[in-house]
C-alpha cells in the first residue's frame, strides 16, 4: 500500500514548467550558442523533419524558412541583446502567413510561430474605441464594451483583485444567453499566486478550445524551459477543468496593470471554441492599457479634489488654532466638519480635563472600555483605525464598529475619536468559496479539485462598518500633524512666556539690588555733608558751598539712577542711547565721595589720561562707581591707599585700567567675582552685599565691552575694561 505523502495546493503547481504548447502555435527554443534545445511536437507539420533531426539544427537553419528581411532580423548576435524586449513581426512559412514572436528568457531564445490573419485596423475603428470611452464615465464598462467589439465573445468581465487577493466582477458585457455575474466574488485560490505572477509577465493569454490537443516539448527537460512569457503555453489541467465546470469552451484574458501591480483582468469567455488572432489580441492589450491610463487620470483627479478638501479644512483649522485661546472650543467648532468628511456617525474629543461629544457616541462607561482597548492595540501609535472593533461578547458595539483615533501624547489622553455604525452586507459568490481535495494516484497525494458549481452563494457579512479609505487615513494623518504642530507651537509659546516671566522677575530683583547698591554712596554723601553742616555752625562760606555742591551733585546722581532704572523697566531688551562720554568729571567725583565714605585720609591717587568712551552715561557712572568704590574700600585699611586709573586707545578699543593695593583675590575664587551675592572669603571684614560686581558684569555685557582682572593676595588687583569705539 502506497503511503500518501501530502496534500498539494494549487499554488504549488509549476504551471510555467508544463512543457506543453497549444495547437495554434509552434515553439522552438535555442541556447546562447544558437543550438536548438527544444521543439514542440507539432513543428513536424511544417519542418518535414523528425524530432531528433529538428533538434540537431542550429538557428541559422530555421531562418532559411523565413523571407530574407525577417531572416536578417534574427541573427544570433542581435537576438541575444534583446534582454527584456520582444520582437514580433509577420512572416511566411510554406507560403502561409504567420506571426513570429521572439524573446529571451533565462538565457534561452524562444521563437513562437502562430498562424496569422491579415487584419487591417482602420483609424475610424480607433476613433470608435475612443468615443466609447468618452461616452461612459465608467472606464471599466467602456473597456468591456470595446473588447466585446474586437473579439465578440459571449461574456467580457472586468475582474478586480481585492486586498485579500480574492476578486470581484466590477463591470461586464454579456450576451443575452449569458447570466450576469456583475458584483460576484471569487476566492483567491481561483487564480493562485503563481498564475497572478505570470499575468504580470504576459499581458495576453488565450485558450481557443479547452478540448483541443496540446503538444509536448521535446529536447531538454520541461523543468529547464520556463514558458512564463509564452503566449501559446498550454493551460494547467486544473484550470481547463475549471473552465469546463464553468461551461465555457474558449477563454482569454488581458492584464490590467496599475502602478506596476496586477490590478485585475479582462476575463473573456465563449461557450463555443473561438480563436483570437494575434493582431486582435494586440489591439485588446492596447485598449486595456489605454483604459488603465484613463483610470489613473481619473484617480489622480479624485485625489486632487480630495486633497483640496483636506487643504481647505487644514487652512481654516490652522488659522483658528493660531489665534485660539482654547483648543477645546476650536476643535469643537470643527467637530461636525470632521464627522462629515469621514462619513462618521459620532465623534469624541477627549482630554484629562474634558470630553466633548458629537453625534451618536458611546456612554462614558463604554467609551472608557473602548479607549483602554485601543490603547492596548495601538500603544505606540498616534493614528489608529479599524472597521471591525470588538470588546467582550456582551457589549453591543453595533453603532461603533468602525473606530478611528488620533492622539497627541504618549499617554493617549489627548485624543479625537471617530465612530462608524455597523453595516450589513450581502456578498454574492460564484459558488461556495471552498477547496475540495481529491486523491490523485498519479501524484500519490491529495490535490484540490476545481469547483464544480458556480451557482450564486450568498454570505451575510456583519460585525463591520464601512472600511476607512486611503482618503480617510490621509485626512487623519494630516489633521493629526496640524493639531500636533499647533499644540507644540502653543507649548513652545507658553514655555517662552514662562522663561520671559522668570527673566523679568530676575531683572526686577536685580534692578532692586542695583538701585539699593547704587544709591548708597550718593545718599551717604548727602548724609555726611548735611550732618557736617548741622554740627558746625561756624563753617566758612567756601566750605558751605563745597558741601552744598556735594549734596546737589549726589542728588543729581540719584535722579539719574532713578531715571535710568525706570527706562530700563520700560524696555526689554535694554536699549541705550549711545554717545561719546567724557569720564574725567564723574570719575573724580566718585573718588572724592568714596574717600569720604570710607574715611580715607592718606590717598596716593595716580590719574593718567582718561580717554572718552562710546557708551551710555548713567551705565558708565554705575560701572566706574562700583569698581572705584571697591578699589578704595578694600585698600582703605592700608597705611596709604593707592589708586591708579588710566586709559589707552588701541585699534578699535578704548581700554581703562583701575589698579589698587587692596586685599587681592584668591586664585580659587576668581570665577565667583561676578556672581550675584558672591562675597570673597577675605572680604568678611568689609561691608558689602555681593551685588556690585554682578552689576558691573551686566553693564559690561550691555555695552558689548569686555572685563578681566589680575590679582594677588595682599598686593592688590588690576581691572581691565575694553570698550568698543563704536
UniProtKB/TrEMBL annotation:
GO terms for molecular function: phosphorelay response regulator activity; phosphorelay sensor kinase activity; photoreceptor activity; protein kinase activator activity. It comes from Sphingobacterium alimentarium. Residues 487-514 form a coiled coil. This is histidine kinase. It catalyses: ATP + protein L-histidine = ADP + protein N-phospho-L-histidine. InterPro entries: BphY/WalK/GraS-like, GAF, GAF-like_dom_sf, HATPase_C_sf, HATPase_dom, His_kinase_dom, HisK_dim/P_dom, HisK_dim/P_sf. Residues 514-726 form the Histidine kinase domain. The keyword Kinase applies. Its EC number is 2.7.13.3. Keywords: Chromophore, Coiled coil, Kinase, Phosphoprotein, Photoreceptor protein, Receptor, Sensory transduction, Transferase. In the N-terminal section; belongs to the phytochrome family. It holds the Pfam family PHY. GO terms for biological process: detection of visible light; osmosensory signaling via phosphorelay pathway; regulation of DNA-templated transcription. It comes from the Bacteria. Residues 135-289 form the Phytochrome chromophore attachment site domain. It is an enzyme of class 2 (transferase).
Amino acid at each position: 500500500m502506497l503511503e500518501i505523502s501530502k496534500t498539494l495546493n494549487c499554488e504549488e503547481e509549476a504551471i510555467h514548467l508544463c512543457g506543453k504548447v497549444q495547437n495554434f502555435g509552434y515553439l522552438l527554443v535555442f541556447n546562447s550558442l544558437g543550438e536548438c534545445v527544444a521543439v514542440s511536437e507539432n513543428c513536424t507539420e511544417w519542418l518535414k523533419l523528425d524530432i531528433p533531426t529538428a533538434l540537431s539544427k542550429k538557428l541559422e537553419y530555421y531562418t532559411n524558412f523565413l523571407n530574407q528581411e525577417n531572416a536578417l532580423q534574427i541573427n544570433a548576435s542581435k537576438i541575444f541583446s534583446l534582454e527584456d524586449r520582444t520582437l514580433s513581426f509577420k512572416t511566411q512559412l510554406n507560403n502561409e502567413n504567420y506571426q513570429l514572436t521572439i524573446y529571451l528568457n533565462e538565457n534561452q531564445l524562444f521563437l513562437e510561430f502562430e498562424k496569422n490573419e491579415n487584419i487591417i485596423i482602420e483609424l475610424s475603428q480607433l476613433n470608435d474605441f475612443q468615443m466609447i470611452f468618452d461616452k461612459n464615465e465608467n472606464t471599466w464598462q467602456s473597456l468591456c464594451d470595446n473588447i466585446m467589439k474586437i473579439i465578440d465573445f459571449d461574456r467580457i468581465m472586468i475582474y478586480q483583485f481585492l486586498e485579500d487577493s480574492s476578486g470581484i466582477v466590477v463591470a461586464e458585457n454579456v450576451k443575452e444567453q449569458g447570466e450576469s455575474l456583475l458584483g460576484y466574488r471569487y476566492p483567491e485560490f481561483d487564480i493562485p499566486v503563481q498564475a497572478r505572477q505570470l499575468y504580470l509577465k504576459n499581458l495576453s493569454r488565450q485558450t481557443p478550445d479547452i478540448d483541443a490537443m496540446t503538444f509536448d516539448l521535446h529536447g531538454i527537460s520541461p523543468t529547464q524551459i520556463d514558458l512564463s512569457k509564452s503566449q501559446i503555453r498550454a493551460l494547467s489541467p486544473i484550470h481547463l477543468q475549471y473552465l469546463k465546470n464553468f461551461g465555457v469552451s474558449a477563454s482569454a484574458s488581458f492584464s490590467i496593470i496599475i502602478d506596476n501591480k496586477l490590478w485585475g483582468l479582462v476575463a473573456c469567455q465563449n461557450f463555443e471554441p473561438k480563436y483570437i488572432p494575434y493582431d486582435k489580441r494586440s489591439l485588446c492589450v492596447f485598449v486595456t492599457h489605454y483604459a488603465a491610463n484613463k483610470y489613473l487620470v481619473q484617480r489622480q483627479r479624485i485625489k486632487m479634489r480630495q486633497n483640496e478638501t483636506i487643504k481647505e479644512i487644514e487652512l481654516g483649522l490652522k488659522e483658528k488654532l493660531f489665534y485660539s485661546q482654547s483648543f477645546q472650543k476650536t476643535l469643537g467648532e470643527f467637530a461636525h466638519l470632521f464627522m462629515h468628511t469621514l462619513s462618521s456617525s459620532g465623534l469624541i474629543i477627549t482630554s484629562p480635563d474634558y470630553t466633548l461629544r458629537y453625534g451618536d457616541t458611546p456612554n462614558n462607561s463604554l467609551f472608557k472600555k473602548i479607549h483602554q482597548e485601543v490603547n492596548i492595540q495601538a500603544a505606540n501609535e498616534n493614528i489608529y483605525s479599524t472597521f471591525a472593533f470588538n470588546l467582550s461578547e456582551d457589549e453591543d458595539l453595533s453603532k461603533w464598529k468602525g473606530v478611528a483615533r488620533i492622539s497627541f501624547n504618549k499617554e493617549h489622553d489627548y485624543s479625537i475619536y471617530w465612530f462608524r455604525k455597523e453595516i450589513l452586507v450581502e456578498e454574492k459568490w460564484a459558488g461556495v468559496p471552498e477547496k475540495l481535495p481529491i486523491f490523485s494516484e498519479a501524484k500519490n497525494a491529495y490535490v484540490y479539485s476545481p469547483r464544480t458549481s458556480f451557482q450564486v452563494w450568498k454570505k451575510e457579512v456583519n460585525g463591520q462598518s464601512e472600511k476607512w479609505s486611503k482618503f480617510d487615513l490621509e485626512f487623519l494623518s494630516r489633521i493629526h500633524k496640524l493639531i500636533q504642530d499647533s499644540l507644540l507651537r502653543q507649548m513652545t509659546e507658553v514655555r517662552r512666556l514662562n522663561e520671559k516671566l522668570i527673566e523679568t522677575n530676575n531683572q526686577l530683583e536685580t534692578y532692586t539690588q542695583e538701585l539699593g547698591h547704587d544709591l548708597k554712596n550718593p545718599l551717604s554723601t548727602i548724609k555726611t555733608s548735611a550732618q557736617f553742616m548741622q554740627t558746625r555752625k561756624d563753617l566758612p562760606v567756601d566750605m558751605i558751598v563745597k558741601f552744598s555742591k556735594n549734596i546737589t551733585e549726589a542728588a543729581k546722581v540719584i535722579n539719574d539712577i532713578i531715571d535710568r532704572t525706570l527706562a530700563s523697566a520700560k524696555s526689554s531688551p535694554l536699549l541705550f542711547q549711545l554717545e561719546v562720554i567724557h569720564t574725567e568729571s564723574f570719575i573724580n567725583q566718585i573718588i572724592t565721595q568714596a574717600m569720604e565714605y570710607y574715611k580715607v585720609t592718606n590717598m596716593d591717587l595716580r590719574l593718567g589720561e582718561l580717554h572718552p568712551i562710546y557708551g551710555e552715561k548713567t551705565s558708565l557712572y554705575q560701572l566706574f562707581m562700583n569698581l572705584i568704590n571697591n578699589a578704595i574700600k578694600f585698600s582703605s585699611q592700608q597705611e596709604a591707599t593707592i589708586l591708579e586709573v588710566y586709559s589707552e586707545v588701541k585699534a578699535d578699543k578704548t581700554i581703562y585700567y583701575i589698579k589698587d593695593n587692596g586685599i587681592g583675590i584668591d586664585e580659587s575664587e576668581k570665577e565667583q567675582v561676578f556672581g550675584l551675592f558672591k562675597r570673597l572669603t577675605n572680604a568678611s571684614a568689609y561691608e558689602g552685599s555681593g551685588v556690585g560686581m554682578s552689576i558691573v558684569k551686566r553693564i559690561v555685557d550691555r555695552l558689548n565691552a569686555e572685563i578681566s582682572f589680575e590679582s594677588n593676595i595682599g598686593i592688590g588687583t588690576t581691572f581691565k575694561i575694553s570698550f568698543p569705539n563704536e
